[in-house]
Amino acid sequence: MASANAAPLAPVVPPGAEASKQFNVEVATNAWLAKVAAPDRQKSDAYFEGGYWLILWDFLATAGVMLLLLETKASAWMRDFAERATHVRFLQYWIYFFELVVISAILIFPLTIYEGWLREHQYGLSNQSFGAWFAEQLIGMALTLVFGGLAFSALIAIARRLPRNWAMWGALIALFFVSIGAIVFPVFVAPLFNKYKPLENQLVKSQILSMARANGIPVRDVYEVDASRQSKRVSANVSGLFGTTRITLNDNLLNRCSPQAIMATMGHEMGHYVMHHALTGLMFGAIVIFTLFAVLRFGLDKIVERYGKRWSLLSPLDLAAVPVAVLILSTFGFLLTPVQNSFTRMQEYEADIFGLNASRQPDGEAEVDLLLGEYRKLDPGGLEEVIFFDHPSGRTRITAAMRWKAENLCFFRPDLPCGGLKSTLSATSRVGR
Fold it and tell me: Which one, of 195, 56, 50, 192, lies nearest residue 118 by Cα?
């Protein structure tokens, strides 16, 4: 593994983006974007645009598997098998969930291999052997079967116990499990896939903790994670809720970025915490979940009424009707993609602005944005960004950074002004006299 000392000492600011009396936001933004060679830009564009089609193919694959289970009456057979296996209803639900997840995973596995391993290697983004990647898939499957099975069984039990109001109670239970997942994931789940250790670079650590204290973030340590074993993507996060908060940098960020870029990234991540994005995300999620369950109830009633006999379904709350629910949920999620992306993108942009003010490193921000551009399209069209981007595009983020720099040129050259600060202070002084 490369040493943190191998990282650049400072961002290499391109001509046209240096602090000067002629500084221009658009010129500076274009100068940063021009640092990416045309073949590299074409490669990242192709990778990201291919992801648009994968959204569609993932949806169609899921829908196809669910329809296959219904049309062949395999779902009814799975229900009957679960009921014969045990008389304990909660365990029946869990057995059906096990069958559904395993069969679906096997049928979709060719697409999973292409999307998660083969394509990542084609674009030079993965460092994993197939064996290492497959082992992680098995870990994820095991977690899904255990904890997903618990959540699924609880939802079915509530729905059957309260058939008149199951949609409302189901939404509450779903929201509860989502909240629990956000709390336990960084502490208990993430270490199953990577090794976490206290950050060894004491200089970077002290700078990060100083910024955290300045912004009221109650953390005492910073962690490093060995993400390079999976890919070369740079990342960091401030994760957790209600006492499980932790700051984590991946080793790619430490090894590939300048200290200024690291601080810009951490300022962004701290912005998520300070602006309570985890909680507002849960509030948005609650709206989505309650809407989803309302649609689910209506859709299940109508579809089972029409096709129930054909698929051997006994009622909308029959275990064998779960593929119908998955069809409804996946369709709802597919259609909601632009809305969900726009909400997340809004939060990410807010965190960008916070990070610029907290770190005061616009060139570091631009440096990181170009690295993110290795797998995100840097300069999309406006409608394209709205529909497909869950983060601001590289151009949007670099423009924000250069706009911040234009208003704070004195931080980079003492002979240059910081916006209207000097004239404002002068006028204030005169009024005071």
Answer: 50
Domain of 356, in residue numbers: 22-193+282-433
Residue range 114-123: mean pLDDT, rounded: 95
> pLDDT tens, 176-200?
998 888 888 877 888 899 999 999 8
Residue 429 has pLDDT above 60, yes or no: no
pTM for this predicted structure = 0.88
* 54 falls within a domain: yes
Determine the 3-state secondary structure of 246 from DSSP. strand
DSSP, residue by residue, 355-404: HHHHH--HHHHHHHHHHHTTTS-SS--HHHHHHH-SS--HHHHHHHHHHH
- Decide if 207 is inside a domain: no
Residue 230 structure tokens: 């999976």
Is 4 within the bounds of a domain? no
| Structural domains of the chain, count | 1
Q: Considering the domain boundaries, does residue 258 fall inside one?
A: no
Tokens for 58, please give them.
């993932």
Total Cβ atoms within 10 A of residue 58: 18
Q: How far apart are CA 320 and CA 78, in angstroms?
A: 7
430 Cβ contact partners less than 8 Å away, ≥ 6 residues apart: none
C-beta separation of 220 from 205 below 8 A: no
Encode pLDDT of 318-351 as tens digits. Answer: 999 999 999 999 999 999 999 999 999 999 999 9
